[in-house]
Design goal:
The structure holds two protein chains of two kinds. By secondary structure, chain A is α/β, with parallel strands linked by helices. Chain A is built from five helices and six strands; from the N terminus they run H-E-E-H-E-H-E-H-E-H-E. Chain A has one domain: HprK N-terminal domain-like (Udp-n-acetylmuramoylalanyl-d-glutamate--2,6- Diaminopimelate Ligase, Chain: A, domain 1, 3-Layer(aba) Sandwich). Chain A starts with a helix and ends in a 6-residue tail after the last strand. By secondary structure, chain B is an alpha+beta fold. Chain B has one domain: Histidine kinase-like ATPase, C-terminal domain (Heat Shock Protein 90). Chain B has five helices and five strands; from the N terminus they run E-H-H-E-E-H-H-H-E-E. In chain B, strand 2 and strand 3 form a beta hairpin. Classes of the chains: A alpha/beta, B alpha+beta.
């Protein structure tokens, strides 16, 4: 599924890198604790979170996460966090929808858990 | 990388009194390993181990610590050393969910007690030694032939 389609499905807005809308997402994970994001197994995946701390973007870079989806209309408070993500090729999306609904809609479209054992 | 001797990277991890710089060393490690064509899955695991180490140094070791990454043909070895407060009960610290993190760290979503267990999980070999009042030493090995993500 392309990020552009993810944005459409979840009424989400690109906070940066809108020209990366063709980037493909096959799996996703959802976590708010940075410790949980760091412990996620499996390959790079769309990360659904309500945590807008700048460290989430750092963690995303370290883990090779291609895109972060902020729920409940959240977004990082500081523009420099968005710039940092842009500089490292991490797409940031923001949806007004809460986590459960966002994940549910993605699942119905065939996106599965990045931690493969639940497939 | 063809050299049998491998590449050694040294980093000083400073404790700046906050978490703003956490990740700076890990992202540098990641870049350097990409430059010498280490396998993606290995880079990912090594970077996560380094990030957790940085996090611990910034959270607990007053004077920070040192991180050494040795890239060998068959493995990447990570050495973390600090002269921080040490860990009273290492076994307890290795238990997922056990944490002594202060509130300000937990509010950022860190300090959930998953750091050391995650380092062990991402490593093929993991050793930790700690003495109260002296500091903590960690040795982690990630084999390059295992093509894990």
């Amino acid at each position: 599924m392309k990020l552009r389609e993810v944005a459409e499905l979840l009424e989400a807005q690109f906070l940066n890198l809108e020209d990366e809308g063709d980037r493909e997402i096959e799996s996703a994970c959802a976590a708010d604790l940075l410790s949980d994001i760091l412990a996620i197994k499996g390959g790079p995946a769309l990360t659904v979170t309500s945590n807008v701390a700048p460290q989430v973007v750092r963690v995303a870079e370290v883990m090779g996460i291609p895109a972060i989806l902020y729920v409940r209309g959240k977004r990082p408070a500081e523009e420099k966090v968005v710039d940092w993500a842009t500089g490292n090729g991490i797409v940031l999306l923001s949806t007004p929808i809460p986590t459960f609904e966002a994940c549910g809609r993605l699942y119905l479209k065939g996106i599965r858990c990045s931690e493969g054992k639940y497939l | 990388m063809s050299s049998e001797l491998g590449v050694v990277l040294y980093f000083a991890v400073l404790n700046s009194g906050g978490l703003d710089n956490v990740g700076a060393v890990s992202t540098e490690v990641k870049r350097r390993l990409q430059e010498i064509n280490v396998e993606d899955g290995v880079i990912r695991r090594v970077s996560i181990i380094c990030f957790e180490a940085e996090m611990n140094l910034a959270s607990y070791a007053d004077r920070g610590g040192h991180l050494k990454v040795e890239v060998k043909p068959d493995r990447v070895e990570i050495f973390v050393e600090d002269d921080g407060p040490g860990i009273e009960d290492v076994e307890q610290a290795m238990t997922p969910g056990y944490s002594t993190a202060p509130l300000w760290i937990r509010e950022l979503g860190f300090g959930a007690g998953l750091g050391l267990p995650n380092m062990e999980e991402k490593s093929d070999i993991f050793h930790i030694e700690s003495e109260v009042g002296k500091g903590t030493r960690i040795h982690s090995v990630v084999f390059r032939r295992r093509d894990a993500a």
